[in-house]
Each structure stands twice: as C-alpha cells, then as structure tokens.
Design a protein that fits this description.
Number of strands of chain A: 4
Order of helices and strands of chain B: EEEHEEHEHHHEHEHEEHH
CATH topology of chain B: Rossmann fold
Strand order of the largest sheet of chain B: 6-7-8-3-9-10
CATH superfamily of chain B: P-loop containing nucleotide triphosphate hydrolases
Low-confidence stretches of chain B: none
Strand order of the largest sheet of chain A: 2-1-3-4
Low-confidence stretches of chain A: 146-160
Largest interface: A-B, 29 and 30 residues
CATH architecture of chain B: 3-Layer(aba) Sandwich
Shape of chain A: elongated
Distance between the termini of chain A: 29 Å
Largest sheet of chain A: 4 strands, mixed
Distance between the termini of chain B: 46 Å
Oligomer: heterodimer
Strand content of chain A: 5-15%
Number of domains of chain B: 1
Number of strands of chain B: 10
Bound molecules: adenosine-5'-triphosphate, magnesium ion
Strand content of chain B: 25-35%
Mean pLDDT of chain A: 82
Mean pLDDT of chain B: 91
Order of helices and strands of chain A: HHEHEHEEHHHHHHHHHH
Helix content of chain B: 25-40%
Number of helices of chain A: 14
Radius of gyration of chain A: 25 Å
Structural class of chain B: alpha/beta
Shape of chain B: globular
Chain lengths: 363, 255
C-alpha cells in the first residue's frame, strides 16, 4: 500500500482492455479492415492492368529516333500520333493527355535530338508519372554508349515503376480507414463509457483522466496499425502495390498513419462531447467523414475536381494524409519530404484538440 | 469501553444541486471494522452522501476525513484505500470477468489472481462470461469482487442486495460479514430493514438530507419499545420469507 501508484501500469491495463474490446467489436473490424479491403479488391481486380498515360506526338515530330522507339516499348505510355495541333490542345486542356512531345534533329553531333515536352496542368498526377518515365528514359539513352552497366540498372527501374490503380486506391483507402476508426471509434467508445457509467467506476480508482485518454488512444493506434499493415500486405502481395523502399516505406506509412489517426481522434472526442444520444453519433460523424471521403482524393485525384471545389479539398486534413501516403509509397519520399503535409495535419490537430478540450464531457 | 476509532468522520456536510438542498448539514462517524448502514427513503440523500465520501462528487461545504485523509486534498490517496460499489455502474464492454478484474488490478496498481477474487464471490464458473450475461445477483457479487481488489480498508456498497432473491441476499450478507471479519470497514445502504438489523452494527436514518436517528439496530428497537410501541398483530413463528427459503434451499444460485 505504501508503494507509489504507477500511472503507466494503469494506462497499459486500460490499453490492453480497450484493445481486446475493439478486436471483439464487429463494427470496428468492419470499418477498419473489411470496408477498405472490399474497395481494394474491387479496384485491384478492375484496374489490374495498371495505369496508361496518354502522350501525344506533335505533328511534324521526328518519328525515327531512339527516344520514340523507347517510348513505343514503354508499357505505361500510349503514344497518340495522328492528331492535329488543335485536337491535341483540346485534349490536353481536359487532362485526357498527360503531355505532348515534339522531337527534332538538333543538327549537332551531341545531343543528336532535342525533345520538347509540355505537360498538362489538368492532369498533374499523370504528368508526374510521365515525367519520371521520361527522365529515366533519357538517362538510359544518354548513358547507353558510356556505361552499359548503369543503363541496365536504370532500365529495370523504369519497368518496375508501373503506376497501377492500386497505387492510387490503397493509400486513399488506408487514409479513409484511419479517418473512420479515429472519428467513429473514438466517439462511440467515449460516449458509451460515459453513458454506461464505466468511466464513473474508473474514477473510483486512482487512475488519472490522462491515463484513460492515453490508454484508449494507444489501443486504437495499435488496432489501426494492425489494420494498416494488413491492408498494405494484402495490397502488396496480391495486387502489386508499389513499396519503393520496401520495409522502410511501410514504416514511414505507419508513422504517417499514427499522425493522421491522432488528428482524426480529435474529431472523435469532439463528437463524443456534442452528441446528445447514441443515435446522433453516426450522423455527426458522417458530416465529418463523408466530405473527406468524397473530396480528399480517396477515389479520384483531386486534380480532376472542378476548380471551385479544389479549395475545399485543399482545406481537408485527409487530403494531406492521402497525398503524403502516395508520395511515400509510390515516389519513395521520406517523412521529411512530406513535412508540409504533416505540418498541415498537425495544425488541424491543434485546432481540433483545442475544441475537444472545450466540448469533451466526462460525465 | 474504549472510545471506538472513527475511520470516517463527516462534519456538517451540505450538498446543494443548483437550488435544491439534497444534504442539509449532516455529521456522523463510521468506526473501524464496523458495518455501518445508511437507511432512508428514496431521494433521502444516501447515494449523494456516499459518493461525496468516495470523492466522486463535489460537496457544497463541510469536512470529511477518511482514515485521516481529507477528501479535499487527498482524493487520490483515499481512492487507493477504499473499494466502491456504485448504485449504478457499468463495466468495460466485450470483456469477460477475468479480463475485467485484470483491468481493475491495473487501475489500482495491484497484482491479484483474478480466479481467486472470483472464488471469493463464488463466480469461478463464470470466469469466461461477459458481465452483461450475468444475473442480477451475480452482477452484484462481481461488483463486490472489484471493490476488494486493492485490499481496501473501507468498502462502500450502495444497495448491494436490491433486486436479489432471498437466498442471494442471505449469501451476500455472509460475504459482507466475512469481509468485515477480515478487518475491512463496510458502509452500505439498503431499503431492507431485516437486512440492516441482521447485518449492521450501527445504522443512520436519513430523511430529506438530514440524519434523524443514529444507533445500533438493537438500541433503536429498544428505544421504540420503551416508548410504548407495540406491533399491531401477533407475529407468527415464521414468515413467508422463511417459507421461501425453506422451499427453495439455501445454496448459491447460478441462474
Ligand atoms: N446529479 C444530480 N443533480 C440534481 N439532483 C440530484 C442529483 N443527484 C441526486 N439528486 C437529487 O438529490 C436527492 C438525493 O438523491 P440520492 O441519489 O442521494 O438519494 P438516495 O437516498 O440515494 O435515494 P435512493 O434510495 O433512491 O437511491 C434526490 O432528490 C435527487 O433527485
Ligand atoms: Mg441511492
């Protein structure tokens, strides 16, 4: 009895209990695992062939050159040759073509050819794919005569980086899964613990309020990470989801998941505080999650949205989580490279927790 | 006779809910190792008083010491030495009894064997059951098990026998007596006068937030008789409850 009270023990006991409870709760499992998985399966099978990027060839461009030959053999790129300037311009503006290429003899010895490429601002994600393909291609071609070994390695990289539908869909689904676990899970659990007087009974023990929040948070993070690993593993091994740096990429994605989840849990605390009854939790939560589900690039790139919608999309925290996830997974970015996205999420976090502190109720 | 040691002392306790005076300046002591009963009609202020002593509610004014600790300054130290059964409480969802006890052991920061705790309240067969799936009496017994985890000096039981069948009630009396015999002070509330008479060493009658009588059940009865009170009807040597017990046996019921 004289031994000092250990808050860590209490926190961990709560985390363990909460984790067990979540694992046995059908709705948590459905939201975190089944839901995203269904979308991944659907899109994984639908878009199994990977993404094609349309690249227009400007009329009058030289066609008999190594660059053009290499492009012909690049699986990701579909060359559109028999269109006139006006048609090409039109399609570019709509974002149907990722860019237009015009190759001309330079008249010099080196470089022998000059390739002019214009990208479409209406299709930035495809434009990025095109850029990386072209960069790699040029590097391969230019270094061919000098160092064959290097060219070999580079070439394999070009072919390995096919941007598939799954590369877009999976991070979006992961982000949305984190959003729904964070908001719904947290809101329900704290509302119910309060209503059923579980928290009151906790308060009759020496446990601190912070331990209750922390314990619940840890359990939810643990559960969400398990879900994330599960989704990534299924995506990677069954649908060739791209993980540029393998395990490192996965770890970066998980760290990002934790940041996102902590922010989203803030919304959950707010909902649990303002909900008047259990049945008002889903509608309030939906007000938070649905717009992000639709507008944060979960299914479609936000670049495809009309311009009046874009500012709304660019204000939502899930947009930045999705964006950062995709950059880390497909482009091999590190956490430092996506610091801007993380910063915006953290700003959201600050705001939402400031609100949560005001509206959260213990009893 | 030695002056008994007061483990709880309540002085001039007042509790107002907005402009409603629920507790109107009550004072009493609970002695070490006794079973102390708070009796009184619905809404008298029993639960309010208990929960203020348990540090779960704020008082409006007054002074309360629990084992020498002030409820104002040492709430956390008090929580470590008391066990609390609330009149209405819930338990973490989706967990079985063993897991719930593990959770509470963690919250109290003690090491206990959950099965031993369940044996104390005769629930070892329900170790893997969920709290929700227990009968009313089993729920009460489980709640009492959670109050014993930290080997408390005092346990508070708010209507522990409400809704129980006669056997379950008697078995709970035995359990509560055993707990007291092992050195724990017990404070309870009840609406059953036979229970208070059998179980409690002293009782306080609370009405509308005031204590209107406080003594041992024996003394209170004697006082009433000496004032000339008589029961209207001659009591038979047994009552219907005796018939019930006699017909249905005395064992713990698991149903
Ligand atoms: N949170 C509260 N807010 C306002 N009034 C309250 C609150 N809790 C209790 N009261 C009022 O205070 C009075 C005492 O309530 P309390 O629960 O202490 O009664 P009790 O003696 O335990 O009754 P019972 O035998 O029905 O359990 C009641 O009139 C009740 O309506
Ligand atoms: Mg009461």
């Amino acid at each position: 009895m004289n031994k000092p009270y250990n808050h860590t023990t209490a926190t961990l006991a709560l985390a363990k209990a909460s984790f067990r409870s979540i694992m046995r709760s059908p709705s948590a499992v459905v939201f975190t695992l089944a839901f995203p998985l269904i979308f991944i399966l659907v899109f994984g099978f639908l878009g199994g062939g990977g993404v094609k990027v349309d690249l227009a060839v400007a009329p009058g461009s030289d066609l008999q050159n190594p660059v053009m030959q290499a492009l012909e053999h690049t699986a990701v790129i579909r060359l559109i040759k028999d269109k006139n300037n006006e048609e090409i311009q039109n399609e570019l503006e709509k974002g149907h073509y990722a860019g237009v290429i015009n190759i001309q003899k330079s008249g010099n010895e080196k470089p022998e050819y000059l390739a002019n490429v214009s990208y479409s601002a209406a299709s930035i994600d495809k434009g990025n794919i095109l850029k990386s393909v072209l960069n790699n291609l040029m590097y391969t071609l230019n270094s061919k005569d000098l160092k064959p070994a290097v060219a070999e390695i580079r070439e394999s990289t070009v072919q390995g980086r096919t941007y598939r539908t799954i590369d877009f869909i999976l991070p979006g689904q992961l982000g949305f899964s984190l959003l729904s676990t964070g908001v719904f899970g947290t809101a329900f659990v704290f509302f119910n613990l309060r209503q059923t007087l579980v928290i009151k009974r906790f308060f009759a023990t020496p446990v601190r309020r912070s331990s209750i929040i922390l314990g619940e948070g840890l359990a939810r993070i643990g559960f969400a990470l398990l879900g994330a690993v599960f989704i990534i593993v299924i995506g990677h091994f069954f649908f060739d989801f791209t993980l540029i740096h393998g395990v490192t990429t996965v770890l970066n994605m998980l760290i990002l998941s934790v940041i996102g989840l902590v922010v989203f849990m803030g919304f959950g605390f707010v909902v649990s505080g303002i909900a008047k009854s259990e049945s008002t939790i889903p509608p309030i939560s939906n007000i938070i999650t649905l717009p992000q589900f639709l507008l944060s690039g979960t299914f479609f790139s936000i670049d495809n949205f009309p311009s009046w919608l874009q500012p709304i999309s660019k204000a939502l925290p899930l947009t930045y989580l999705n964006d950062a996830m995709r950059q880390i997974a497909f482009e091999g970015a590190g956490l430092w490279d996506v610091r801007q996205q993380i910063l915006i999420m953290l700003i959201w976090g600050l705001g939402i927790y400031a609100l949560a502190v005001r509206v959260f109720k213990w009893e | 006779m030695d002056q008994p040691h007061a483990i709880i002392s309540v002085r001039n306790l007042i509790k107002n809910y907005a402009d409603f005076n629920a507790v109107k300046g009550i004072s009493f002591d609970v002695y070490n190792h006794e079973i102390f009963g708070l009796l009184g009609p619905n809404g008298a202020g029993k639960t309010t008083t208990l929960e203020i002593i348990e540090t779960l509610r704020e008082k409006t004014s007054g002074e309360i010491y629990v084992d020498g600790l002030s409820v104002d300054k040492d709430a956390n130290a008090i929580k470590r030495i008391i066990g609390v059964q609330l009149q209405a409480a819930g338990y973490y969802p989706n967990l079985n009894l063993v897991e719930l006890l593990e959770l509470f052991a963690g919250l109290y920061g003690v090491k206990v064997k959950p099965m031993e705790m369940l044996e104390k309240v005769n629930l070892q067969d329900k170790a893997k059951a969920k709290y929700k799936a227990l009968s009313g009496g089993q729920k009460q017994r489980f709640s009492i098990a959670t109050t014993l985890l930290n080997s408390p000096k005092i346990i508070f039981l708010d209507e522990p026998t409400t809704g129980l069948d006669p056997q379950a009630r008697r078995n709970l009396w035995d359990l509560i007596s055993e707990i007291r015999d092992q050195g724990t002070t017990v404070v309870l509330t009840t609406h059953y006068m036979d229970e208070a008479e059998q179980l409690c060493d002293r009782v306080a009658f609370v009405e509308s937030g005031e204590i209107i009588a406080l003594d041992s059940p024996d003394n209170l009865i004697d006082q009433l008789i000496s004032s000339g009170f008589e029961r209207k009807k001659e009591v038979k040597k047994a009552n219907l409850e005796d018939v019930f017990i006699n017909l249905t046996g005395q064992q713990w019921r698991e149903g």
